[in-house]
Sequence to fold (155 residues):
Amino acid sequence: METLSLQNPLFATYVVAATLMILEVVAMSWLTVYRMMAENAGFRSPEDLRKTPLNRSPDPRQLAPNDRVERIRRIQMNDPENIPFFLVAGFLYVLTGPPLWLAQLLLYAYAVSRLLHFAAYLGARTHDTRAALWTIGSLIPVFMSCRALLAALGY
Fold:
């Protein structure tokens, strides 16, 4: 069985977790646009005030920050700070040939921690709650990266 094959349960586990994270990142862009349109506010660029079929009554107040739109933007901005590192670390970790149960635990725990972090942020939970979920999601790629480094060094 080849390592980088969907027939390999280890690689398939990575593909599932990575795909979920990629879809979450893409969905955040759509959620941001949806929230801006629903609030009719939180637009970013002056050209957004041009009259169009989607903005029939432009108003300079549309460029003012909107708390509901900004919350989504903060969530969206958090993803590129975290998920790309997971995608690379997870891929390198899979190449080390770890036990399937451990890889499943780590990869799925990361995906769940990020989705719960999203829900906590969206639901305006306390920083402590978000930080706990973020910490889980930040330690997993660190572990996977260290394991990949050790494997590359022959340990």
About this structure: The domain at 9-152 is CATH 1.20.120.550 (Four Helix Bundle (Hemerythrin (Met), subunit A)).
